Structure formats: structure tokens, C-alpha cells
């Protein structure tokens, strides 16, 4: 039995989301169709609000509903330490671990020569601007322990050499090849405590 146009279109749109395969997209589509009209409208409204009201913090590059974001504007956060992560979702993972009270910088990607992604394709220059006033004493590179994450860490280390900052890398506790967003709080906390200086 062939699917009707609107259902097929919804499945295709859901299938484009990361981590959503064709079977999951189909299940989600039929679940949405089966929802109450009010629930569907609320879901659609939430998507539109998130897209139209969320901005990129001009300081740390994280997504937020204010600029600067709540973390950057908090007087209770240690501005002398910046934790550099790949994506906004990684900030959420770090915050869940409650192991870091400094500020963040979101790269929005990694250096990946195989994919044609260079240091100019991520928010590295914006990080360097934050170091110009001399208030930052340590930069913790918390890119994922993958080939691209390690490559990015080394590129950043080289860029940070002219600045008077300690450059460290989160260490033990993170399995090689994983993604920060999937680690539990204890694993992330252990990695932060065992960070090492990049030589």
C-alpha cells in the first residue's frame, strides 16, 4: 500500500535529522499523526520558537535565548578558565557533570582535512579574541577523543602558543572514539580532574 504524499514527506523530513534512520522516521511520523491536534500544534510551535528565538552568544558562540548567554554573563563563573568544546550539546553535557565552573567556547565543528574542514571553518579566531585582554589563564580543550578531535586540539594548541595561557586537554575517563554528549556525569568529571597540559 503506497503512502500518501503528506506522510511520505514527513518521513523524509524526519529522516534528515541526525541519528534518525528510515524506520525511526516512519515510527515518529505515525506517532505525530496519531497525536492530539493541540499536541501537534505545541510541538510545531516549539520547533518554530527554538529556531526563531535562539541566538548565538557573541562571546562563547553557544546557542542561547540571550546575548550574552547566562553562563558568560554570570558573575559566579570563573572567567580565567575557558573550556573549548565542539558543539553546543557538549556544553550541556559538561554542565550536567557539575565539574566545571569556568566559561565555555563552542567551535561549531572540528578540523577534518579528510572532509575539507580547516581551522578557518570553526570558531577558533573568536576564541583568540577572548584571550587578548590577558584575563584568561587556562584553556581546556575538550574536543572529543576522536581523530578529528585530536587534530583540532593540536591545531588549537599551536594557535594558542603566542598567548600566555596554560593549554590542557581533558584526559582519563573518556574512551577513544566516543562523543562527549553520551558520557555520564562521573566520566566527564573524572576527565576534567585528570586533564593534562598539552606539550
Number of strands: 7
Percentage of helical residues? 40-55%
Q: What is CATH's topology name of the largest domain?
A: Dna Topoisomerase Vi A Subunit, Chain: A, domain 2
Distance, first to last CA: 62 Å
- CATH domain class of the largest domain: Alpha Beta
Q: Low-confidence segments, ≥5 residues, pLDDT <50?
A: none
Question: Overall 3D geometry?
Answer: elongated
CATH architecture of the largest domain: 3-Layer(aba) Sandwich
Mean pLDDT: 89
Provide the number of structural domains: 2
Structural class of the secondary elements?
Answer: alpha/beta
Describe the structure.
By secondary structure, this protein is α/β, with parallel strands linked by helices. It folds into two domains: 5-53, Helicase, Ruva Protein, domain 3 (Orthogonal Bundle); 75-197, 3-Layer(aba) Sandwich (Dna Topoisomerase Vi A Subunit, Chain: A, domain 2). It is 41% helix and 14% strand. The strands form two sheets. It has a five-stranded mixed beta sheet. The chain has a two-stranded antiparallel ribbon with strand order 1-2. Strand 5, helix 6 (147-160) and strand 6 form a beta-alpha-beta unit. Helix 1 (5-15) packs across helix 2 (22-34). It is elongated and about 60 Å long. The protein starts with a helix and ends with a strand.
Please specify the SSE layout and strand pairing.
Blueprint: H1 5-15, H2 22-34, H3 37-53, E1 55-56, E2 63-64, E3 78-85, H4 88-97, E4 102-106, H5 124-130, E5 138-141, H6 147-160, E6 166-169, H7 185-193, E7 196-197
Parallel strand pairs: 3-4, 3-5, 5-6
Antiparallel strand pairs: 1-2, 6-7
